[in-house]
Design brief:
Layout: H1 9-19, H2 32-41, H3 50-60, H4 64-68, H5 109-127, E1 135-144, H6 151-159, E2 166-177, E3 180-190, H7 196-204, E4 210-220
Antiparallel strand pairs: 1-3, 1-4, 2-3
Domain Translation elongation factor EF1B beta/delta subunit guanine nucleotide exchange: 135-221
Region (Disordered): 74-106
Biased composition (Acidic residues): 91-106
Length: 221
């Protein structure tokens, strides 16, 4: 796929359109191709690019060590650092491991030993790969009591909630009528560490500001 310069509106639009149907730039797990686009963006896209923002927050939730262990190949770069096309399929360096050698290889004691060594090296390499952490991207609608509620203070209180496996993202105010706005805020959670029910309960504890909390969107990533 080609996104052009992802720092431009057209490039971001193409990226957002692509990520509407894909969790990652390539394949079904994060890879160096995702890092190429992530680094080219440089910062989180605007909240209007919902799918690109969801993907960006997800990639940002991994630390440097985790990213360095991702497989695949980085996208070729052009002037200005604009990712233009995905690496050829099959770029995972696991494919470089030829477990059984050439079909024409003579079956001998030496050939059998070579096969065993390659198989052992392959299994050792696979065993070192970290397990993929299940995560979800959530958009919450936090509703105030009335039009006199201090929305900045409401957002400040919501973001004050800290949980292992919780990462807050972009937020915006959305009009609901009669001069009242609701706070729409994104977050990424690690499914095994953060309960959505517990998170909404913690937000509702700010009862001076919060009337109710709804889940506007929930996506596994």
């Amino acid at each position: 796929m080609a996104f052009g310069d992802v720092k431009t509106a057209n490039g971001l639009k193409e990226l957002d359109k692509f990520l509407a149907d894909h969790s990652y730039v390539e394949g079904f797990t994060p890879s160096k191709a995702d890092l190429s686009v992530f680094d080219a963006l440089g910062k989180a896209p605007a909240s209007t690019y919902v799918h690109a923002l969801r993907w960006y927050n997800h990639i940002a939730s991994f630390n440097a060590k985790e990213r360095s262990e991702w497989g695949g190949q980085a996208l070729p770069q052009v002037a200005g650092g604009k990712p233009t096309a995905a690496a050829p399929a099959g770029g995972d360096d696991d494919d470089d491991v030829d477990l059984f050698g050439s079909e024409d290889e003579e079956e001998s004691a030496e050939a059998a030993k070579l096969k065993e060594e390659r198989l052992a090296a392959y299994n050792a390499k696979k065993s070192k790969k970290p397990a993929l952490i299940a995560k979800s991207s959530i958009i919450l609608d936090v509703k105030p009591w009335d039009d006199e509620t201090d929305m900045k203070e409401m957002e400040k209180n919501v973001r004050s909630i800290e949980m292992d496996g919780l990462l807050w993202g972009a937020a915006k105010l959305v009009p609901v009528g009669y001069g009242i706005h609701k706070l729409q805020i994104c977050c990424v959670i690690e499914d095994d560490k953060v309960s959505v029910d517990l998170l909404t309960e913690k937000i509702q504890e700010f009862e001076d500001y919060v009337q109710s909390v709804d889940i506007a969107a929930f996506n596994k990533i």
